[in-house]
Amino acid sequence: MTNPYPVSGMVLPRYSGLSTFMRLPYIPASEMQDIDIALMGLSWDGGTTTRNGSRYGPRQIREMSTLLRSVHPATGIDPYKLVRCADIGDAPTNPVDPMRSLEMLQDFVQQAFDKGARPLVFGGDHLVSLPVLRVVGKQQPLGMIHFDAHTDMYDFYYENSRFTHGTPFRRAIEEGLLDPKRVVQIGIRGTMFAEDEYEWCMEQGITHIGMDFIRERGVDAVVAEARRIVGDAPTYLTFDIDCIDPSYAPGTGVPEIAGVTTYEAQRMLRGLRGLDLAGADMVEVSPPIDPTGNTALVAANLSFEILCLLAERVARR
Question: Which of helix, strand or coil describes residue 203?
Answer without folding.
Answer: helix
